[in-house]
Specification:
Blueprint lengths: L2 H11 L18 H52 L3 H18 L4 H17 L8 H5 L6 H17 L1
Helix pairs in contact: 3-4
């Protein structure tokens, strides 16, 4: 171990050279009992503050977050009843909707296009009435739209050149 690390370790332990174990020693030379009392006092003070913070967090959640969660649950329940679609299916639909909205909000046009293209790939991979199975998709001749457009450009360039 380096001398620098040893100095840091010695400064942190502040045990008065007794090999550790006694804990911090008061500058006035008080005994280890003082150290235990000081530690206990510090723990009690900090734990009291932590408990207060945890109560404040719970109160804030109960006041602000809980009503929002309840409103979301009510909205989901009402939508499920109105459209007669299973909740899990609605959750999947919402995840796609949310991703589409996230993509639309992106600053870079390339990022927006990438998200839209990825969503098209997923939906093109779906077979009507079946679950999405990427194993089946891998075995098909499907080529993403972006790749198809790039290949069409290369084909046009090759035809013009030759």
């Amino acid at each position: 171990m380096s001398k620098k690390k040893n100095r840091k370790r010695a400064a942190k332990s502040n045990t008065g050279g007794n090999g550790g174990g006694a804990g911090p020693i008061h500058p006035d030379g008080a005994t280890a009992n003082y150290s235990v009392a000081a530690i206990n006092e510090r723990i009690a003070r900090d734990f009291s503050e932590r408990l207060k913070l945890e109560r404040d967090i719970k109160d804030a959640i109960d006041e602000h977050v809980k009503p929002l969660r309840e409103a979301r649950t009510k909205l989901k329940r009402e939508l499920k009843a109105a459209v007669d679609i299973d909740g899990e299916d609605l959750d999947v639909m919402f995840a796609v909707f949310k991703r589409k909205e996230q993509g639309a909000a992106m600053d870079e046009a390339g990022d927006r296009e990438r998200v839209a293209e990825n969503l098209r790939i997923v939906f093109n991979a779906l077979v009507k009435g079946q679950m999405l199975n990427f194993i089946d998709v891998i075995g098909t001749d499907y080529v993403p739209t972006r790749a198809t457009a790039q290949q069409a450009e290369r084909d046009q360039e090759a035809a013009a050149a030759g």
